[in-house]
Structure formats: structure tokens, C-alpha cells
């Protein structure tokens, strides 16, 4: 083979190698370069999961059918999903810690039912701060509720309850459920402490309760505009009222 042809083929090979190197570098840079955020004018989805880089769930936006059930440290427990359309929040450990859920529908007989709630959960427990609207065909209750819950992981409480529910129906199971719902070392599983809102009798109410959830002080303006301040004993009996009744 003539030397001139050999030189020409070597030059072609060098050019090919250089071009391949440049293209490989460009592709490598493009693969690792931060991609710009995508922008959409409109999307239609049934569920969106917001996760941390390690996959830990932080937020779910879902319709009813694809909504999650309770989740504790990434593991479902309790009842299945499919009943809570809205937004569900999760803490750093992947445990549910509140959400915004809503629903409303008209029944076959023409009456309606509607409900909206924004809640925040106690750590490893259930909701303790709730902003709610509940409406059963005009019987409306809306307001802010603050409560106390026992310092016991909700997953342990649910496991206890589910083991009781697995028992045959009868007096033994009923008694076990009754004992399960009782206070632990004098601390109730849940006690409402504060309610500020409007009740189904159209009263504007501020109600403060003791650690057992028993109302002890009530400030009220009724549906006719009459104000009252009431003090109650542990049994719920009004022991003082301002202004005093005639």
C-alpha cells in the first residue's frame, strides 16, 4: 500500500477519534447538567406524590379512589385508602401528620351532606388541631377544635384495637373494647380542650374543657343574639351564670 494512502487513512482515523471524543464530552456534560424545571399551563392527574431524594413521602395530593390510608414510618396500617380526597401531609419519618380533606354530595332523596377539614396531628398520634366545616342538610357545625391525646404511638393503639376486633362477637369482645377505650393511668385516649365556633343550634360558642374533656367554661351568644357566660361542674351542671337567670 502506498505511503501516501497510509498517511491519509491515519489522518482520517485521528479526525474520527477527535470527533468521537468531542461528541462523548458533549453528551456527558448534557447528561449531568442541571435540567431546567418543566413548566405546564395545565395538568390533569389522579394523584401526585411529593417525596424526598431518598423516596420518603412528604405530601400526597389525590382524588378519592387513589387517596392513601394511614401511614406510619412508610408502612400502611389501620384502614385502607380510597376515602380521603385532598392533601395528606407526612413528617420527616414518612408518618402521616395532618392534611386537608373535603367532600360533599347530594343524596338520592335530595338532601345533602358536606364536610371539609384541615387537621394537624400530634407526633406519632392522631389529629389534635382541627379546623372543620360539617353540614348535614343544613345542620351545620363549624369551628376550631384543640385536643389532647395520650402519649402512645397510634400504631400500637390500632394494633390493640384490631386484635380485639378479631375476637368472636359477643360480651367478651364488647368488654375488651370498652376497657381499650378507657383512660390509661388516668389519661384519656383523647380529650377535647378548646372549641371555638358555631354549633348546630346556631350558637356562637367558646368552650373550654378540663383534661378529661369535660366542659367547664362556656361563652355563648345564641341564635337570638343573647350572650351568656356559664361555669359548669364536672358533671356538666351549670353552677354559675352571667348574667344571672331571672
Describe it for me?
The chain is α+β, with helices and mostly antiparallel strands and 246 residues long. The chain has 3 domains: 1-38, no CATH class; 47-200, no CATH class; 201-246. Helix content is 22%, strand content 39%. It has 3 helices and 14 strands. The chain has helices at residues 3-32, 154-165, 171-181; strands spanning 47-51, 57-62, 71-72, 75-76, 86-90, 96-106, 112-121, 127-136, 139-149, 190-198, 204-209, 215-221, 227-232, 238-242. It has a 12-stranded antiparallel β-sheet with strand order 1-2-5-6-7-8-9-10-11-12-13-14, with no helix packed on it. A two-stranded antiparallel sheet has the order 3-4. A hairpin with a 5-residue loop joins strand 13 (227-232) and strand 14 (238-242). Helix 2 packs antiparallel against helix 3. The protein starts with a helix and ends with a strand. The relative contact order is 0.06. The model has no long low-confidence stretch (mean pLDDT 91).
Number of helices: 3
The average pLDDT score comes to: 91
Order of adjacent strands in the largest pleated sheet: 1-2-5-6-7-8-9-10-11-12-13-14
- In angstroms, what separates the terminal alpha carbons? 126 Å
Which percent band covers the strand fraction? 35-45%
Major beta sheet, specifics? Answer: 12 strands, antiparallel
Estimated structural class = alpha+beta
Rg, nearest Å: 31 Å
Series of secondary-structure elements, N-terminal to C-terminal: HEEEEEEEEEHHEEEEE
- According to DSSP, the number of beta strands is 14
Poorly predicted runs of 5 or more residues: none
Integer tally of domains? 3
- The backbone outline, from C-alpha atoms, is elongated
Q: What proportion of the residues is helical, as a percent range?
A: 10-25%
Amino acid at each position: 500500500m502506498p505511503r501516501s494512502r497510509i498517511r491519509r487513512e491515519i489522518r482520517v482515523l485521528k479526525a474520527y477519534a477527535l470527533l468521537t471524543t468531542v461528541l462523548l464530552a458533549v453528551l456527558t456534560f448534557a447528561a449531568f447538567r442541571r435540567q431546567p424545571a418543566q413548566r405546564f399551563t395545565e395538568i390533569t392527574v389522579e394523584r401526585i406524590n411529593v417525596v424526598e431524594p431518598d423516596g420518603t413521602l412528604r405530601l400526597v395530593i389525590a382524588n378519592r379512589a387513589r387517596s392513601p390510608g394511614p401511614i406510619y414510618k412508610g408502612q400502611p396500617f389501620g384502614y385502607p385508602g380510597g376515602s380521603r380526597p385532598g392533601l395528606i401531609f407526612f413528617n420527616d419519618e414518612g408518618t402521616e401528620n395532618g392534611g386537608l380533606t373535603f367532600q360533599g354530595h347530594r343524596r338520592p332523596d335530595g338532601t345533602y351532606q358536606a364536610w371539609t377539614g384541615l387537621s394537624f396531628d400530634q407526633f406519632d398520634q392522631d389529629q389534635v388541631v382541627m379546623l372543620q366545616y360539617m353540614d348535614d342538610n343544613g345542620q351545620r357545625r363549624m369551628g376550631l377544635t384543640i385536643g389532647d391525646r395520650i402519649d402512645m404511638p397510634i400504631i400500637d393503639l390500632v394494633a390493640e384495637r384490631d386484635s380485639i376486633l378479631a375476637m368472636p362477637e359477643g360480651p367478651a369482645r364488647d368488654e375488651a373494647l370498652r376497657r381499650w377505650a378507657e383512660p390509661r393511668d388516668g389519661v384519656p385516649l383523647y380529650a377535647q380542650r378548646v372549641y371555638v365556633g358555631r354549633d348546630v343550634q346556631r350558637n356562637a360558642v367558646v368552650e373550654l374543657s378540663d383534661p378529661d374533656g369535660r366542659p367547664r367554661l362556656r361563652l355563648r351568644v345564641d341564635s337570638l343574639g343573647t350572650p351568656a357566660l356559664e361555669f359548669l361542674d364536672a358533671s356538666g351542671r351549670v353552677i354559675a351564670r352571667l348574667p344571672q337567670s331571672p
